[in-house]
Amino acid sequence: MKIKINSIKSKFLLSSIFIFFIATIFLNIYMSSLLEKSYSNKIKRDCDILYSSSRDYIYRYAKLQGIELDQTNIVYLAKNIAGGITSLNPTYIRILDKDLNGLCEVNKDLEREYIVFSDDLKAAQNNNATTTITKINNKYISSFSYGLYFNDKLVAIINFKSDYSYLFEEKNKIIFNLNIIMLFMFILFTIITFYLTTRITNPLYKLINIVERISKGSYDTEIKIESNDEVGILAEKFKVMQDNIKENLDTIKNLELYRRDFFNNVTHELKTPLTGIKLYAELLDQNYNDTDLVITAADRIKNESNRLYSLVENLLEVSKGKITEAQENLNEINIKPIAETIVYDMQLIASEKNIKIVHDISDTHVRAYTNHIVQLLINIIDNSIKYGLEGSNVYLSIFEKNGLCNINIKNSKNNKNFSTAHGNGIGLFIVDSIVTKLSGSLIIKNNLNTFEVNIKTPCL
Question: Which reaction(s) does the protein catalyse, per the Swiss-Prot or TrEMBL entry (predicted)?
Fold first, then answer.
């Protein structure tokens, strides 16, 4: 039997790798969050500076000019105001009226494709100074807008745009370098984990291999595990168990042989004569006026009863520990009449599953015990019926070729109730034993939908 082993080492390694992988993901998320927060604070500080410096400049400019800005004169003064602000803060600036119509702009090397409408402009209309960051063609453009008020009236919208791509590139580099460091740490962690788990699990694997060999019958396998921990204690306990098994091995083998002979030589054979008696009794009950049938049925019931009586006697002998051969002589036997009678009887059983036994039996002579031939034929036919597909045919042929008696039987098997060639009942074990005694050969062909048995024994 092959023992399937779930590797403790593999589970431990996979668990460690999984935990490390999850930790790496969370660390990346955490670092990204920290960097984004830091960059957001920097952008906010820059925007606060722009807001404070530009607003102070505009109010000073209006005071120096001795005017109050309104929606009319801002149209004429917007260009001068924007120029003055950019002299203090060299960045892109745009001044719009309260309806977001452009009045002027000063562009410091910011390409037109990055100058797009953003939500901060609408927010500025509602007296909210807001910053938005938009990714355009792998560039991160910050847009900051606020409303310019004089005498509590909205005069214009001031909009600044700046390229902060360098911050996000810096963030990506930091995350990349962090991942490289984590990769090296992961490799080192895996090597250390593998080394530690190997030291822990190798004695376990060694003990498992030893126990597996013992389970297959190698009771002389030496258990030698030098360990002072729980594994060493377990190994010592297994050694004690191994010694006890070796001491009782002969007794166990004898009991197993006795049990196998007891069941394999008797139990299966009891069913067939009982089935024959039952079926013929039912035929008599249904057709008691048919004189020929009554005679035939009585004869068959008598024969099956005698065979059943003989089997019970053998059973009693076996129960006393006396396993003996049938008390009959080794004779020259013509298989044909025996086979035809058995086919006739077994057809009654087969009819319950709507199975038909198609046979082609020639005169074939062998030297054997009659009971052995009867057992052999009953078993192979009974198995073909038992595991055959309902409504199918069982094909039996017996013929002589090249000095050998060929017995061939084939059926369409029912895979729902069928496992393997050696697992479809006690019958084939008995057949194999009989064929061996007849110095013959047994070939079993187990295909997808058919099951075939070929037996060859020497002819006279």
Answer: ATP + protein L-histidine = ADP + protein N-phospho-L-histidine
